[in-house]
Amino acid sequence: MARSDRVGVAKTYKLYIGGKFPRSESGRSYPVTSESGAFLANASQASRKDLRDAVVAARSAFGGWSGATAYNRGQVLYRVAEVMEGRRDQFIAEVRDAEDVRPRTAESLVDTAIDRWVWYAGWTDKLAAVLGGTNPVAGPYFSFTVPEPTGVVGVLAPQRSSLLGLVSVLAPVLATGCTAAFVSSDARPLPAITLAEVLATSDVPGGVVNLLTGQAAELGPWLASHADVNALDLTGADPEHRTELARSAADTVKRVLRVPEQEPDWTSSPGIGRLRAYLEDKTVWHPMGV
Amino acid sequence: MPVFDYAPAPENRDIARVKQYYQPFIGGGFVDGDGEPLKTLNPATGEVLAEVSTVSSSDVDSAVHAARRAFERVWSPMPGAERAKYIFRIARLIQERARELAVLESLDNGKPIRESRDADIPTAAAYFFYHAGWADKLDYAGLGPSPQPLGVAGQVIPWNFPLLMLAWKIAPALATGNTVVLKPAETTPLTALVFAEICQQADLPPGVVNIVPGAGDVGEMLVTHPDVDKVAFTGSTEVGKLIQRQLAGTRTRLTLELGGKAANIVFDDAPIDQAIEGIVNGIFFNQGHVCCAGSRLLVQESVADEVLSKLRARVETLRLGDPLDKNTDIGAINSAEQLAKIRELVASGEDEGAQRWTSPCPVPEKGFFFAPTVFSGVESSMRIAREEIFGPVLSVQTFRTPDEAVTKANTTPYGLSAGVWTEKGSRILWLTSKLRAGVVWANTFNRFDPAAPFGGYKESGFGREGGRSGLAAYLKGDDDGAV
Description:
Distance between the termini of chain B: 71 Å
Shape of chain B: globular
CATH topology of chain A: Aldehyde Dehydrogenase, Chain A, domain 1
Number of helices of chain B: 15
Number of domains of chain A: 1
Number of helices of chain A: 10
Number of strands of chain B: 20
Oligomer: heterodimer
CATH topology of the largest domain in chain B: Aldehyde Dehydrogenase, Chain A, domain 1
CATH superfamily of chain A: Aldehyde Dehydrogenase, Chain A, domain 1
CATH class of chain A: Alpha Beta
Strand order of the largest sheet of chain A: 7-6-5-8-9
Radius of gyration of chain B: 22 Å
Helix content of chain B: 25-40%
CATH architecture of chain A: 3-Layer(aba) Sandwich
Largest sheet of chain B: 7 strands, mixed
Helix content of chain A: 40-55%
CATH architecture of the largest domain in chain B: 3-Layer(aba) Sandwich
Radius of gyration of chain A: 20 Å
Largest interface: A-B, 50 and 51 residues
Distance between the termini of chain A: 84 Å
Largest sheet of chain A: 5 strands, parallel
Number of strands of chain A: 10
């Protein structure tokens, strides 16, 4: 039998919450098509309940992830890049379908995404040295300041850039030691689901990253008002909704990342602004004396 | 044991040179504002100290306009090394007029002269001195080469450390090349207006610093002013949330330093006598009007009785009374309104079943005073364990294991500060990493220094004041708008 006669095994694309791949508790799904309109898959359409489960999972995972050594987190994140590399062809195909770009462009976007993950992986054990330090206070005290992760970060991932944009907003959350509940691109969720599969097989503890596919417009308000979310990235929100989302974030003094009105060119080099945004300086004092 | 009485040792109030009437400072000059004048009281007597002209919306416009002109024409183009010298001058002028400022602060705020003289004013000078040195070194602030100022900063400060909070706000703003419109608290505007005189004596270019007295409505006009680029607020979490809402969706930068409900954790191996001093300093410093006050004492069960009895014995010796008396430990509550709030929360503690103990110290008949109070048998669900009292009231809970201490300490939406008392170094380091708070004092409490960043986690706000981190609140770095 010729190989082309074989019937392929199509994948069911699901959510990723607490290290597991459940369907939406709402039972809803929505069709995902390529830019040219071809059917690609049915994605789960996450609900408010799924979002709350995702935040609970992210909170439960926070202690372990933030408490891991920076070296350990760096190795786990580097491992993610290794596994991404192994899935390179799959990502290229999915990015090509999702973003309707030429094969060579898709290749370049995927390669940049993998390299970006490596770049962030290397930051874990340097942040404290770059951003923290000892404080020469005027008294017999030893005082030092260390950056610590702020907690659970809610992310509305970019709508256009299905993988590179997603990696660019997600990797810094993890590199700081924060955990994430994120809503993928409405129309281009499939690379995000594959990335979740990579995370599930890369020693990233369950719950550190939680993926919701569905509509940012529906889930955004619940994410922005959730009292157990510490910081918010509204990159993927409709610019017209951002003010309202930022307003509800104020009710629990969330850190709301400053993001450009339009999606930036994700291929340009990142700075450490996204790392800084998810870090809290902690200052410790102790007396000196005999 | 013989008991010695303290003879009265009041500081001379004439040193404060209190004027009958103070004016807003706009564009380098003192001008009458169009707002309803306010009367600021001496909280130790309830008598009027001075009348202060307040600003209207058009005065706020003028102040912001003056700050914008100064920003564009003078202050931001000026080389950092030149800006630095103005800020050094200000630091020195505060030191030169330190006693005058201390007495004025105690008269207007009610805090003991010992604290205004030894803490507030010298630390305010230190903030200017520290930040002055940064003005020509901003390339090393960690924000990339040539970080740029934001523009006009609108700053709103509370009444608990009037001049010190002004210093925390104005010093980093000026060092980074921003200009300032600052609103002092309604009940404590006087030292800010003397600071305005200091700006004149320093020959600071007009418009670089503007002081606009008034109540909350003036604060709102300022923080929502369309030509303000940066808002810095210190005050209650309630108002902080309101400001964050108002600025949502705008390009105005915001930093918030809000309320707290700090846990002060005492382990059974702690040096108890030192810990008692730390507990007292943690909650009774500045009448407990401190956002980072150690208002929740968590004491290990095995030493709870000993700690409580020693604490009561120590608190009984605290002297409550005339803020200008050099022997006074606890001065006046800043306002009748704050006193009513403290009384209401204390009543709720009694109603909810906590055991109240209040020092039997004599309480002056005039003025706003509240005797130091300790509640034991407090449950985490009680209002006195959850809400910021901002007064000399301590809530005591117990714990058995370090894990329980961490859980109880972190069970609050606030995250400003915490204290730990134990002789075991590894436990200190373990706890400091587990406590979700921006400042952790181990075997000490309530230490502040311009070189040490200060600010909160969670609903205690965001952004830092002091240290290199504090500069980021007033600068655009190379990461702005980056991927």
